[in-house]
Amino acid sequence: MDELVLKEQIADETEMSRRAFLQGTGLLLGFALTGASTESVFAAPASQVVENEVTGAFAPNGFIRINPTGAVTLVIPMIEMGQGVYTSLSMLLAEELEVKLDQIQVQHAPPNHALYVNSIIGIQNTGGSASVRAFWTPLRQAGAVGRNLLIAAAAKRWNVDPATCRAKDGVVFDASGSKHLRYGELAKAAAKLPVPPAANVKLKDPKDFTLIGTRAKRVDSSIKVDGRALYGIDTRLPGMKVAAVAISPVLGGKAKTVDEKAALAVKGVRQVVNIDETVAVVADHTGAAKKGLEAAAITWDDGPNGKVSNADIVKQLEEESKKPGAVARNVGDVGKALAEAAQRVDAIYQVPFLAHAAMEPMNCTVHLQKDRCDIWVGTQAPTITQSQVAELTGLPKDAIKIHNHLIGGGFGRRLEADGTILAVKIAKHVDGPVKVIWSREEDIQHDMYRPYYLDRLSAGLDAAGKPVAWTHRIAGSSVMARYYPPYVKDGLDPDAIEAAAEPPYALPNIHVDFVRVEPRGVRTSWWRGVGPTHNVFVVESFIDELAHAAKQDPVAYRKGLLGHNPRALAVLLLAAEKAGWGSPLPARHGCGISVQFAYGSYTSQVAEVEVAADGSVKVKRIVCAIDCGMYVNPDTIEAQVQGGTLFGLTAALHGSITFKDGRVEQSNFDSYLPMRIDEVPVVETHLIRNAEAPGGIGEAPTAIVSAAVTNAIFAATGKRLRSLPIDMDSLKSSS
Amino acid sequence: MAITLKINGTPHEVDVDGDIPLLWVLRDVLGMTGTKFGCGQALCGACTVHLDGQPVRSCQTPVDSVGDSAITTIEAIGKTPQGAALQKVWLELEVVQCGYCQSGQIMSAAALLKDTPKPTDDDIDAAMSGNVCRCGTYQRIRAAIKHAAGV
After folding, report:
1. Staple A349 to which of A26, A455, A580, B131, CB 3.0 to 4.6 Å?
2. pTM for the whole structure
3. Given 3.30.365.10, 3.40.640.10, 3.40.50.880, 2.60.40.10, which CATH number is that of A3-224?
């Protein structure tokens, strides 16, 4: 997006919020609810979308609403896409507010940078494995502020010292326990009391937590087992039409011929919208829209990118990566150390473009009117979406109402507003609300892909095999430079080099740099795990190469380089121990290990694989040790380790998007393969408990798994894989 | 053309072309959005419903091919013994993440348990490998099916 727009947006919202804050909490509440609608279009089961404004509420901050009936609402700043934030963030609030988890309903926060920014990311985005890390303190503080005010209101009514009262399960009790008042009964009185600064309230000692750290049940499960859960794609509005879309197969192309007459002849088709880059057929239902789109028999003018191919993209990376890039880290004298080393190891690694392929295909419902634009979508980036729609429509930002929804798998795809922008462009031509649904093929072929990277590495080992020199050059697209330019300083993309600039090992002479190479005709973006997903594969494979060159066991070699890094060492040793590292294995079986520090968490994985004579790889078992500091819900962590591991493993085994004649060669789940139940390994999680600051979990297992698997393949076959996805043909047994 | 469909025990009349997939009739015409769209090509199982107790992919089932068959969707599978048992263990074992594929997963699992009350791992692989989950809940899906079946 436009850098200026984002800067302005943040400045605007900060200013609006500052003014709102100065004028008191009443306005703050009003501001917070500007994005919520009063329409009761949706059924709203507990803990789903609560679109009705809570009036007369106790609202001491952006997060809490308590109404006189006693309903407690968490205005949740982050979106639920499977990672469990409805539950974990509710747990953080409930712990200090002293309510039971099942007393809380959640309402999606409207776009509001000042109230709901994710402090780790710097934007109101759900991503970066940052939700618990960012809201660990603010939500507990919010809960404590609320509890203190409710207790104060009760104490005032009883004319007693608040210090003698206590709160539990949404009720305030006096010292004797004989008097009690429910939060709902206190809401109006508490709303009149001055709100103490959040930083001044005393928070519980973690040893007194009764909810945080427990295996509390997910609050969004029950609506997801009987069809009640509403995702963006489930939006239904009075008078709504549905649009099926065909987007130019080549980026920058446009429709050449469209048989509108044939499309309009299909029963239920109402309109054909041709906006050059995309043709939309608008109909009463998706079935008619898709049938009409087929009848339209669209032909395309490919435009300037009709010759784009993977071969050319890789060739460009090979050439550009020979030149020095922006320096991410430079310690010691790498050139000298490399020249004097007893042994030198060089390698080139490559990872492919990847699609997100979330189960819920891209979709967005828009009702564009003269003075407002309502948007029903599941988005990880509500403020960015609002700004981009404001720019496109010319409407003020507060006229852009974002009705956020559960997301049927985000994985970074919904950090981009392109799906919403396309829907608004189509809605400009449609009278009334329109739901734009992409087919699976459109979803895969018009994704914004994890960049293709090419990495060059060299290391020098001393006579004992220790790495005395380490150079690593990363070449590829800079997502950050497009998405959030202020974070890129002197050409250095902090995401592209994350987990490469600072490997966990003792490396006395290290030089890491980044060469930005933008592929023509390809859109790139965030993909679960972002920078580390690429870099940990490279770094952990290369350190394995060094262990082999030094003729040392991979665990022992890493252990020797982690003496200064006790948390990394601890996860390494725990994973190795739980996996039974070193136990004898049959022929063509092998174990591989990897270690990472990313997203504030330390992770180590051991993969056990079997490589068949025909080269096919069976991953039999994954053992994961993780230290993510203080944690909220260990069951969610295990679920994320299982799921995140499979997300990364799917990519390692099957994932690759390739271009030919400007077009993506994959189209559906038969050519962009997901893992299925019959090929998944058992994933074991071993969680270290400590009092360190909370770390992220959603992406850690995704980033770490591929190196553990390719290192295991090396152990099983002696074949070092330096590119993904795994080339099974290269693993055929020669005997 | 007017077509009468028997869905979850209730007749519904719809007026659409006969080649329109059942999925869109359920979701868009009748507003039963629990059945999900995932791929449109019977490759992911998100749209699974039962026709006379047998699992079918509604995205590839023309509405005029349904005839008198009884359609069961996720909204009513809890009224069958298998569906109720699966929904219960799905909650006990915390299977869901994003949840989008889970309607189809439960519909496939309910059909499996109806025909094979004590499934082996191979039975589970055969019955469930048509259902894709990008969140990676497979380990818990397998455990939940076994738990519901008491194996």
Report:
1. A455
2. 0.94
3. 3.30.365.10
B100–chain A Cβ distance below 8 A for any pair? yes
Torsion of CA B101, B105, B107, B111, to 10 degrees: 160
Residues 6+ apart with CB under 8 A from A291: A266, A269, B17, B19, B20
Q: Whole-angstrom Cα distance, residue A451 to residue A305?
A: 18
Other C-beta atoms within 10 Å of A355: how many?
23
Q: Mean of the per-residue pLDDT values for chain A?
A: 92
Q: Do A236-303+362-437 and A311-353+449-731 have matching folds?
A: yes
- The rounded distance, in Å, linking the Cα atoms of A57 and A38 is 15
Spell out the CATH class of A236-303+362-437. Answer: alpha beta
Residues of B with Cβ-Cβ distance to A674 under 8 angstroms:
44, 132, 134
C-beta separation of A292 from A245 below 8 A: no
Euclidean distance between CA atoms A397 and A390, whole angstroms = 5
Phi, psi of A595 (to 5 degrees): -135, 145
Q: In what order do the strands lie in the sheet with A467-476?
A: A326-331, A510-516, A467-476, A453-461, A343-351
Residue range A645-699, pLDDT digits in tens: 999 999 999 999 999 999 999 999 999 999 999 999 999 999 999 999 999 999 9
A463-497: string of b/e by CB count within 10 Å (b at 16+)?
A: eebbbbbbbbbbbbbbbbbbbbbeebeeebbebbb
Q: Tokens 């995401």 appear where?
A: A495
> The domain that contains B19 carries what CATH number?
3.10.20.30
* Among chain B residues, CA nearest to A358: B134
Asked whether the beta carbons of A128 and A120 are under 8 A apart, the reply is yes
All residues at 6 or more sequence positions from A691 whose CB lies less than 8 Å from its CB, including other chains = A206, A629, A630
Using DSSP's 3-state secondary structure scheme, residue A402 falls into strand
Q: Tokens at residue A612, please?
A: 């068949």
Token look-up 């819900």 returns A633
The C-alpha atoms of residue A731 and residue A728 are separated, in whole angstroms, by 5
Percent of residues, chain A, with pLDDT higher than 90: 91
Q: Do B94 and A221 touch (CB under 8 A)?
A: yes
- R_g of chain A computed on alpha carbons: 27
CB A241, CB A283: distance < 8 Å: yes
Please identify, among B72, B105, B125, the residue that sits at the C-terminal boundary of a domain.
B72
d(CA A72, CA A58): 9
Cβ–Cβ contacts within 10 Å for residue A32, how many? 24
Residues of B with CB below 8 A from A411's CB?
134
| Chain B CA closest to residue A286 | B24
Judged against a pLDDT cut of 60, whether residue A20 lies above it is answered with no
Q: Is residue A14 scored above 90 in pLDDT? A: no
Interchain proximity A359–B132, CB inside 8 Å: yes
User: Position of tokens 């988890």?
Assistant: A101
Nearest alpha-carbon partner for A159 in A175, A182, A147, A143: A175
Q: What is the DSSP letter of A530?
A: H
Q: Is the pLDDT of residue B102 over 60?
A: yes
Q: Which chain A residue is nearest to residue B137, measuring alpha carbons?
A: A643
